[in-house]
Amino acid sequence: MAKQKQTVKLKEPVRIRFKQLSNGNQSIYLDYYTGDVIRKENYVGGKRKYEFLKLYLIPERTREDKAKNEATLALAKAIQSKRIVEVQNDAHGFQNTNKSRVNLLDY
Hints:
This protein is of the alpha+beta class. About 30% of the residues lie in helices and about 30% in strands. The protein has one domain (about 15-90). A three-stranded antiparallel β-sheet has the order 1-2-5, with helices on one face. Strands 3-4 form a two-stranded antiparallel sheet. Strand 1 and strand 2 (about 25-35) form a beta hairpin. The chain is extended, with a radius of gyration of 19 Å.
């Protein structure tokens, strides 16, 4: 028998995750992982941060439900890719032009 190829699991800094709700829907949220930090012999794990998107998948009973879920997932993936770019820009020292530095009192 031939060996099966192992699939490579990509380590993403931002992942889409789902939480099952009591009414049967699934809530979509983003899971940020800042990475591992290794110092000498001691292992210090990374930190996690969660961002709840207030997007929900509904049980698919009709074609409209399936189309709505596909659109919701596409929106979640777009938000995920935007957050990945923001995390990478912060890691390399680029400024985010979308975030305003306006003082609320001055406004």
